[in-house]
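Please check this.
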Amino acid sequence: MFIDDTIAAIATAPGEGGIGIIRISGSNSLKVAEEIFKAVSGKKISEYNSRTLVYGNIFDGEKRIDEVLVAYMEGPRSYTGEDVIEINCHGGFISVKKILELILTKDVRLAEAGEFTKRAFLNGRIDLSQAEAVIDVIKSKTDKAQEVAQNQLEGSLANKIKSLRLKVTEVLAQLEVSIDFSDEDVEDVTYKEIEEKSLELREEIKKLYDSAESGKILRDGLKTVIIGKPNVGKSSLLNSILGENRAIVTEIAGTTRDVIEEFVNIKGIPLKIVDTAGIRETEDIVEKIGVQKSKESIDSADLVIIVLDSSKPLTDEDLEILESAKSKKTIVLLNKIDLDQAIDETAIEEFVGKDNIIKISALKNEGIEQIHDKIESMVFAGDVKSSSNLVITNSRHKDALFKAYNSINDAIDGIEQRLPYDFIEVDFKNIWDYLGYINGDTVQEDLLDTIFSNFCIGK
């Protein structure tokens, strides 16, 4: 499906830079480029091989606009699957703007957000999961996130979905034959064969679905909240993790009165670290608001880091903090190990496992690496480090897999109850549709518009 009109947009970020790129895609791309571009060699762009950079100038009539390099990529072997022209001019606001305005006077319209990638999908060059991976590559916050996104862009998820849908097709074909040519003598054999395939399919779908939690963290970051009483070393811990003095550290209780948020990369995991006000009873109206925010931040946290002063016995406030984070992934840090110990570790183990208790000295930067290792093990549990790097990072994909998983469970229940093949067929057709929702085979046009509207104009 090739789109009739030709589109153009600036593909580089606005502002000053060495190079600015204007991209044109559509059947008139080459014609438009040859109208406004004159090569120093005197040749036309079409006289060069496709994908050759041609040096020359952009002209508006007799007026030269800029010195440029032009590349022509003949469809369907291009990003969009159509004829594509890319003009490399000097970076900055004026040159790229003038060239784009000139192009838009030549029966070319301004591209919509994500339209270049949308055309790549509509023209069959990539599937929808690969198209969505483009935005993940652009927005990656860590090397690991970029690696997973790049893996999906190259087709790892697309190929897996194709494989799963092929297995569903095989079961549907077997059900169709059984419906059309029913034979009581082979019914038990048929049910058994379908059940074996269904159990295998369910396991594969579940494995993909289970990777979504780690995938979401890689894509959006892990919201990590540091909580504890005043003066236990929360701000010192934040400074140690960040490697800079971001938070004010004093011996005065209540120094941190508001929530401080910072982004940090720990072993490939993007963490949005929130340093909160010390939790205690106070009459100070400003500090009281900060304490309330601290308590609220626990509810929205993916990971809670509780900091306790190991040189002092546990208090009721400490126990209240431990209780408030009981339902969360929690790490307890026993800070100030450079001082004499007075804390009761056994009481803490009633709230968190012994393995989740780490002794540190935030002031002397001791034990910080252990925190990094623990965060990595808690988030990934080893599965993201596999060589496949096939991880679900998109909530839309997760939802589709959840529905496919429910349908395969319904199908297995029907097989075990020896329901008529027609009933089981309905469930497998649902699985087919839900998996197709991921790669775009069964997606609706209005959803496509929503997905691609999150892209930048030039992509």
Remarks:
- Residues 342 and 440 are 60 Å apart (CA to CA).
